[in-house]
Amino acid sequence: MKLSSFIHFASFGIRTILFHKKEAILGTVIVTDKCNLSCKHCSVNNITAIVHPYEKIKKEMETLYNMGVRILFFCGGETFLWKDGEKTLRDLVIEAKAMGFLIVNVVTNGTFPIDLPEADLILLSLDGDRTRHNIIRGNTYDTIMKNIENATSDNICFYMAINKINQKAIPLVCMTAKNMKNVRAVSFNFHTPYPDTKELALTKEEKARCCHIISRMIDKGAPVFNLKSAFPYLIHNQFPTPCHQCVVIENGKISTCGRCIDVPGLCEECGYFFVAEYTLLFRGHPGIILEMLKTYLKYI
Questions:
Q1: C-alpha to C-alpha distances, 117 to 43, 113, 124, 298, nearest whole angstrom
Q2: Which residue intervals of 107-181 are DSSP H helices?
Q3: Of 15, 34, 257, 261, which residue is most buried, by most CB within 10 angstroms?
């Protein structure tokens, strides 16, 4: 991370903590909800299958930038399906950098060739070993592994949603992240139980076991992009929601924290690790602050 970016984020954090501000620093643009997969745990794919045009996305980026957002995510659906004429996902990333966003990340399912060195991080969904991953996402594991091997940069971070099916695959995913070229780290979430996927949600006891395993893997040197000090709050869902420092914009609509905020009761069952980490950070939790500094400086 550049020193200028670090100073900007540190200044934002200090102001937010001291003055209890609710301005956003992290924003996500949904470029499309069109997806080539139908994953068991996903409730937001192919609802409209609309690929939003470049000019609309550019205006949404400008909206977020003018709000003070400096960490930008492009998300879907599947982001690599996005195209507008000759414009591709790479053009969006380059435009975001030119606009002044300090960190620009992309979320993908990894089934398309990965040639995006301009992105700071490519969060790639990997949901376990081959068998468990393919149960959740279809027969895609080998394609994803090949695409990672052939990626043109080492900016990939695995992104795993832990659920009933794959909860025992945490150590394997951690070691795959540690040993595979082009992969920097792995970031975990717990499955957030939308009404149509409640059966995949973990119990508190299962969450506790998973956090214990992740902590053990961190102690063994696994490159985990999560904060151990947030785990007790995640297990019992005892962190403030929504996260006012994060926003999502989709087709012109801005949502605080995420798209799931409109689903009654879902905030109370939130499984997103970053929501717990950010809300605790901006409440001035000292352990979170110190651990986030160490983790972000290491992997971004």
A1: 29, 12, 14, 18
A2: 130-137, 141-149, 170-179
A3: 257
Contact in structure between 110 and 124 (CB atoms under 8 Å)? yes
CA count, 13 A, side-chain hemisphere, 160: 31
286, two tokens: 């000292």
pLDDT in tens, 96-114: 999 999 999 999 999 999 9
Q: Please state whether beta strands 156-162 and 183-190 pair in parallel, antiparallel, or not at all (unpaired).
A: parallel
DSSP E strands in the chain: the ranges are 26-30, 71-75, 83-84, 87-88, 103-108, 121-125, 156-162, 183-190, 246-250, 253-256
Residue length of the chain: 300
Which residues have a Cβ under 8 Å from the Cβ of 5 and sit 6 or more positions away? 70, 102, 103
Write down the CATH number for the domain with range 3-16+27-299: 3.20.20.70
The sign of the dihedral angle between the CA atoms of 96, 47, 245, 226 is negative
- The low-confidence residues of the chain, meaning pLDDT below 70, are none
The reported pLDDT for the residue numbered 184 is 97
Residue pLDDT, tens place only, 220-270: 999 999 999 999 999 999 999 999 999 999 999 999 999 889 899 999 999
Instruction: Decide if 149 contacts 121 (C-beta within 8 A).
Output: no
Question: In the numeric block, which tokens belong to residue 87?
Answer: 């414009």
Distance CA 60, CA 28 (A): 10
Q: Residue 1 has what pLDDT?
A: 79
Residue whose token pair is 């996005």: 82
**What ranges do the domains of the chain cover?**
3-16+27-299
- 134's tokens: 């393919």
| Confidence at residue 72, expressed as pLDDT on a 0 to 100 scale | 98
How far is C-alpha 33 from the geometric centre of its chain's CA atoms? 16
